[in-house]
Write a structure and sequence with these properties.
Radius of gyration: 34 Å
Shape: rod-shaped
Largest sheet: 2 strands, antiparallel
Number of helices: 4
Distance between the termini: 62 Å
Low-confidence stretches: 170-174
Number of strands: 2
Oligomer: single chain
């Protein structure tokens, strides 16, 4: 049943002409400005940087610490029982750690999971930034309409809250004063 609903919605959206959809809503800001505001949001920028960091981490996990290492060493010894009494030893080593079978796949999965998580975080940052932008936009529209209505009534407070006035939230009644 759910598959049928999804299929019907997909067919209807594919058959619906794009001219039937409004280009922009008249009560919303232009798309270009919205995208610019969302891209410049600090939380979205931080999420973008987090994606880049996770991609670098995935590359590091893919390479791993499995490189060749060359080691050189010198050691001085003093032996009292010999005539010379002192000699120098040298050692050279060439090493490479071994990656266990299946470890490469696990490291790649771990890197991919980190990138996917970072992308989800970016989506959440975009969502929250969009919600905040939408709330600020409608606050702006409400205040703009209050300013437009106020001169016609002759009472600045009759239309609603003043610009810059603190807004009461939470549904609590205004505090009573001693006189009222």
């Amino acid at each position: 049943m759910n598959g049928l609903v999804v299929l019907s919605i997909a067919l209807l959206s594919a058959l619906m002409p794009t001219s039937a959809l409004p280009a922009t809503a008249p009560d919303l800001p232009p798309e270009v400005q919205v995208f610019a505001a969302l891209r410049s949001n600090p939380a979205v920028s931080a999420a973008d940087e987090h994606i880049e960091a996770q991609e670098a981490r995935a590359r590091r996990l893919g390479a791993g610490p499995y490189e060749w290492t060359l080691g050189l060493g010198e050691q001085n010894r003093r032996v009292r029982s010999t005539a010379e009494g002192r000699y120098t030893e040298w050692d050279v080593g060439l090493e490479r750690t071994v990656r266990l079978p299946g470890k490469r796949d696990l490291d790649q999965q771990l890197g991919a999971a980190g990138i996917a998580t970072a992308r989800v975080g970016r989506g959440e940052a975009l969502h929250e930034a969009g919600r905040s932008l939408l709330a600020m936009w409608f606050d702006w529209l409400r205040e703009e309409s209050a300013v437009a209505v106020a001169p016609s009534t002759g009472q600045p407070d009759a239309a609603g809250p003043r610009l810059g006035a603190p807004r009461r939230t939470g549904g609590c009644p205004a505090p009573r004063t001693a006189a009222g």
